[in-house]
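For reproducibility, we list the full input for the flavin-adenine dinucleotide complex.
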Amino acid sequence: MLRVTELRLPLDHPEPALKQALLARLGIAPARLRGFSVFRRGHDARKKHAIQLVYTIDAEVEDEAGLLARDPRLSPTPDMRWQPVASAPPGFTERPLVIGAGPCGLMAALALARMGFRPIILDRGKVVRERTKDTWALWRKGVLTPESNVQFGEGGAGTFSDGKLYSQIKDRLHHGRHVLEEFVAAGAPEEILTLSKPHIGTFRLVHMVEQIRATIEGLGGEYRWSTRVTDLLVEQDDDGTRRVAGVETADGERIAARHVVLAVGHSARDTFAMLHARGVAMEAKPLSIGVRIEHPQGLIDRARFGPFAGNKTLGAADYKLVHHASNGRGVYSFCMCPGGTVVAAASEPGRLVTNGMSQYSRNERNANSAIVVGLTPADFGAEGPLAGIGFQRHWEERAFVEGGSDWRAPAQRVGDFLAGRPSTTLGDVLPSYRPGVRPADLTRCLPDYAVAAMREALPAFAQDIAGFAMEDAVMTGVETRTSSPVRIGRGVGFASLNTHGLYPAGEGAGYAGGILSAGVDGLRVADAVGCGLTGFELPA
Ligand code: FAD
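The corresponding predicted structure, in tokenized form, follows.
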């Protein structure tokens, strides 16, 4: 099979045009083409009046070797099948622990289950249906359940999300493909395997994590819900080497294990503190802070797609924006949710944080994204690995108060923010955040340098997307959890730098940013755990 890249066709081209373009590119007669399939389809909208679809095709042809030798743009289709590096020998009884049932923990557990290791998965939250009720209780009634919310519970942080499933990580072993295949097997639409920017929206994610649970349990794995890990049991060899011996949970139960995957996500602040107290190597990591911004989706569609705004093949338009401010700060858009809503993403009482989500259809009125400013540990105002958490909490508390201390969020019109006055009313763009917003002055819940950088960035973004700095665009604050505040260092074989048998993984450990990359990291770590359990050597 040959891989043909960069095959460009006009948007809305007739179906047979793809085969014709492929034959033309390969320079062969139709009889020599045995078959072909679309591996990837994206679009190039840089020229709004001539938007193109861009295909990557896998083609089966006569005399592949001859074509490969003749055309340097062609390559053999790589073998992308997932191959576990270890498997449990018959009668193997030792079981690995996986802490966290987010995309990282789920993919690690699923891979370990497929290898025959019957993992035990511990999660502080609840099964996804119960968790959904708790999450909606915050959005509808302003009632937070600290152990069951947008951040905690089955499916992890991305369950109530836009379900964007792409990433720019290096993925030599094609683990990303396997994650997508597992998602399709669990009920995701097959198109996620071919679209360059697939997304599935929140309802399908709920169904998928249930299917994944059924598969893991069918393979002998076991879940324990409402089971918060509160301590790590560590033993020391005579030579000082530290080894995991198990974990302790909030109800005092001790579970012995030599191999523990730590996939707790970026909001497990109490767990980070416990790990630090137990001497697990970790450091503070750069963060970002900012707000969610909402515009009419139609404005984004027109700016991106011109006359093709509303085209079904293109769907709702997204954007990615970056500005380097004169005070040295980088401002960028993050987790853009076309046709979606801004959501309350809190997990701690009295601390307010925003995020975004959408349904598969992406047909809500507003586009939203985080507009955030990059920070380094030098900005945290404190020393030590946990300093970023203190910084996040401080600004989340400010936002809670500015919103009225009842889970409404502070919101401000862009026109008011740029003019330096508080908002007293909102305009044409209605904020989607539930349980509601309070017109406010967002500069009271953001550091001054972030405000200055954002004031410079918004008009600059409007040069790329006309109307981006429109008076009535609405900003809702604050966005503090775009990534983990800590990095829990890994060394040889994906294990903790100083604690054998502990495998820090996913977003919380600082090795992923998003659903797909968290799943990929889960697969990588599962290989390491499989090798650790059986004594196989982890391939380089
Ligand atoms: P998490 O998903 O955070 O999972 C961690 C799990 O660990 C949780 O289930 C938690 O309950 C559990 N846990 C924590 N501490 C303990 C403990 N002590 N004991 C037991 N269990 C514990 N990413 C995208 O790629 N696309 C998107 O569209 C997208 N949208 C998002 C929208 C929202 C509202 C949010 C909040 C996030 C979104 N993200 C999105 C980010 C994405 O969800 C995360 O990157 C991803 O979930 C990280 O996966 P993870 O498995 O590493 O951690």
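The CA atoms of residues 253 and 510 lie 28 Å apart. The chain has three domains: 2-76, 97-283+488-534, 286-479. Both points were considered when choosing residues for closer inspection.
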